[in-house]
TrEMBL record:
One of its GO terms (molecular function) is calcium ion binding. One of its GO terms (cellular component) is plasma membrane. The keyword Signal applies. Pfam families: Cadherin (PF00028), Cadherin_2 (PF08266). One of its GO terms (biological process) is homophilic cell adhesion via plasma membrane adhesion molecules. This is Protocadherin alpha-4-like. The chain crosses the membrane at residues 643-663. Coiled coil: none annotated. Residues 1-25 form the signal peptide.
């Protein structure tokens, strides 16, 4: 659109830079002319909202507008709201008297929401437009003076003064223009015949009808009126009313009768036969929504009637007769559409954060909710509600705007995610509603320390374990999530005796497995008690301890300690003798195990057990119950021996005893070389499987010998075990009395 004139430029500049700020109900109001160039100043929005320029970027300053995000923009460097793209008021708001762009300004830290209204001012950028470039009129030469001929007026897409039209007819001597007053705009323009027509003088007239709007500068539009002067049919159809007013419910079915028109013609015959039709109308397309019966004049519904699209229909009806030439009559039908509750509310949810920390303070804004309803009156009044019962609530912040805020404390370990149902319900009857589902995730904070299943564990480990062996696994559970639930384990260091705990055991930081770093010794450490700490990876970290009691189980890993051996046995003779003097420090009971082994192939062995009891001098030796029991067993075995064998043995034994007595008497009759012996040592009592004997020395006797010092003899014996006692005994007997050479080994064990 081109503008001319110095005054026009000044007016445009004054309108372009007009910005009004007003604080009403917390809302900032600006105005901007339509068709303003890119970068046109609208207002200092940051300053008007009380925000510092330095905090726009850190606080994530942003502007949102439903469906019009690219029209306006904010320079974050200077806080100025400017025009970003072309704004066409007629495209944005059609012919609405008020046209505004609603902005939502959102800043974080803390969260604030501001509502800004930018009014789009109309400029005179649309000229008046007539329905057609040429209008044909047929006027009978017999028409009376002051006859009126209806004309379709021009329309202007602008509003206010820019759409206020004035009409002017080109100078002529036959017709004048009758323009309806402002209070009666529904009436059409009319040509008024001011001078009788004479077809023979002028059969056709060409007039120009010009419309001028009230804008600055003015814009004009024109149409040509081609008037044909007719002869004959001199009466045009006339309607009962010039204007008909009708009310119609929206969504009425097709075929619903709207109105029946009636026009009359004073002529007769075909000149009075009337046909009805829609006149041309530049502002609407009535044939898509209504149809008219050309014969009856009935207007019926022919499409979807929507109150939200068009609230008022203005139909121009034309009645024409069948005369030659035809005559025309016109009327206007105004159809007011009545709203019904046929549009459910609309919900627009803007989530401000993907998740909410479980320690968020009460009143934290989670989301912004905008509701709207295209219906009017009570049908367009919307209320919002929230289900189910959750720790959130809806707070009305502005007309049709709600904030979802935190009402009570959150606990992620109890509920990690909330699914909220927001319901918007209008006030119609019956009411309509719309629901929107939104998910609110509760973000974890580190408010739970790792916990062990029990405060103390008891572990049993055998000693001499291999180094690095796994002895136990501790496990702690953290109710938090992600890194707050990532548990690591460590030892609570302390000293065990002279050494650090970490030299005995270690714990794997991730798995919690406890390892013994070195072999444990029951004789050194029977119980190892220590603590394992579990800590999460949160900030700050939380932790807890568990006590482990490790009992080291004993194994047979120590050989018996042998005392010095006070006895010896001759290798080939089987003579048992003492190696030193026996005293009170020696055990009162001694157990000797004699092993006899031959040199055959394979070698055969036999064993004999000798139990020795040491008694003080003067005490009678006592055979142990085990010896007595052995003797009884031997006696029972001898019962079965052949009587002859017993007699022979007794005879041999008697002879042997007699010989020994004689030998002893001869040895003792020799004069002693030394004094009497002092008190004797403890009496040595010997027992075996075939009986017991004692060697008692109350006084030391001098053994006469031609060489060397005297010696103390213990006793040499060769036990005679009856055959059949045991396989071991058989071997023993064979080893002693057989032809093979036998070796006798003495094993002495401490009786204790």
């Amino acid at each position: 659109v081109l503008y001319s004139g110095q005054g026009t430029k000044h007016l445009l500049l004054s309108v372009l830079f007009l910005a009004v700020w007003e604080a009403e109900s917390g809302q900032v109001h600006y105005s901007v002319p339509e068709e303003a160039k890119h970068g046109t100043f609208v207002g200092r929005i940051a300053q008007d909202l009380g925000l510092e320029l330095t905090e726009l970027v850190p606080r994530l300053f942003r502007v949102a507008s439903k469906g019009h995000e690219d029209l306006l923009e904010v320079n974050l460097q200077n806080g100025i709201l400017f025009v970003n793209s072309r704004i066409d008021r007629e495209e944005l708001c059609v012919r609405s008297a008020e046209c505004s762009i609603h902005l939502e300004v959102i800043v974080d830290r803390p969260l604030q929401v501001f509502h800004v209204e930018v009014e789009v001012k109309d400029i005179n950028d649309n000229p008046p437009v007539f329905p057609a470039a040429q209008k044909n009129l047929f006027v009978s030469e017999t028409r009376a003076l002051d006859s009126h001929f209806s004309l379709e007026g021009a329309s202007d897409a602008d509003i206010g003064a820019n759409a206020l039209l004035t009409y002017r007819l080109s100078p002529n001597e036959y017709f004048s223009l009758l323009v309806p007053t402002n209070d009666d705009q529904v009436k059409p323009l009319q040509l008024v015949l001011k001078k009788p027509l004479d077809r023979e003088v002028a059969s056709e007239l060409l007039l120009v009808l010009q419309a001028t709007d009230g804008g600055k500068p003015e814009l004009t539009g024109s149409t040509e009126l081609h008037i044909t002067v007719l002869d004959v049919n001199d009466n045009a159809p006339v309607f009962d009313k010039a204007v008909y007013r009708v009310k119609l419910l929206e969504n009425s079915r097709n075929g619903t009768l709207v109105i029946r028109l009636n026009a009359s013609d004073l002529d007769e015959g075909s000149n009075s036969h009337i046909l009805y039709s829609f006149a041309a109308d530049v502002s609407s397309n009535p044939e898509a929504f209504f149809r008219i019966d050309s014969a009856s004049g009935e207007i019926k519904v022919n499409g979807k009637i929507d109150f939200e699209e068009t609230k008022l229909w203005k139909l121009q009806i034309e009645a024409v007769d069948k005369g030659n030439p035809p005559m025309f009559g016109h009327c206007t039908v105004l159809i007011e559409i009545l709203d019904i509750n046929d549009d459910a509310p609309e919900l627009l949810v803007t989530s401000l954060s993907l998740s909410v920390p479980e320690d968020a303070t009460l009143g934290t804004v989670i989301a912004l909710i905008r509701v709207s309803d295209r219906d009017s009156g009570a049908n367009g009044q919307v209320t919002c509600s929230l289900i189910p019962h959750v720790p959130f609530k809806l707070v009305s912040t502005f007309k049709n705007y709600y904030s979802l805020v935190l009402e009570s404390a959150l606990d992620r370990e109890s509920v990690a995610n909330y699914v909220l149902i927001v319901t918007a319900r209008d006030g119609g009857s019956p009411s309509l509603s719309t629901t929107a589902s939104m998910s609110v995730e509760v973000a974890d904070v580190n408010d739970n320390a790792p916990a062990f299943a029990q405060p103390e564990y008891t572990v049993f480990v055998r000693e001499n374990n291999p180094p690095g062996c796994h002895i136990f696994t501790v496990s702690a559970r953290d109710a938090d999530a992600q890194e707050n639930a990532l548990v690591s384990y460590s030892l609570v260091e302390r000293r065990v005796g002279e050494r650090a705990l970490s030299s005995y055991v270690s714990v794997h930081a991730e798995s919690g497995k406890v390892y013994a770093l070195q072999p444990l010794d029951h004789e050194e450490l029977e119980l190892l008690q220590f603590q394992v700490s579990a800590r999460d990876a949160g900030v700050p970290p939380l932790g807890s301890n568990v006590t482990l009691q490790v009992f080291v189980l004993d194994e047979n890993d120590n050989a018996p300690a042998l005392l010095p051996r006070p006895f010896r046995v001759a290798l080939y003779t089987g003579e048992i003798s003492t190696t030193r003097t026996l005293d009170e420090a020696d055990s009162a009971r001694q157990r000797l195990l004699v092993l006899v082994k031959d040199h055959g192939e394979p070698a055969l062995t036999a064993t004999a057990t000798v139990l020795l009891s040491l008694v003080e001098s003067g005490q009678a030796p006592k055979a142990s119950s085990r010896v007595l029991a052995g003797a009884a067993g031997a006696e029972a075995a001898l019962v079965d021996v052949n009587v002859y064998l017993i007699v022979a043995i007794c005879a041999v034994s008697s002879l042997l005893v007699l010989t020994l007595l004689l030998y002893t008497a001869l040895r003792c009759s020799a004069p002693p070389t030394e004094g009497a012996c002092g008190p004797g040592k403890p009496t040595l009592v010997c027992s075996s499987a075939v009986g017991s004997w004692s060697y008692s020395q109350q006084r030391r006797q001098r053994v006469c010998s031609g060489e060397g010092p005297p010696k103390t003899d213990l006793m040499a014996f060769s036990p005679c075990v009856p055959p059949g006692s045991s396989s071991g005994d058989s071997g023993e007997q064979q080893g002693i009395f057989g032809n093979d050479v036998s070796t006798v080994i003495l094993n002495v064990f401490n009786a204790c």
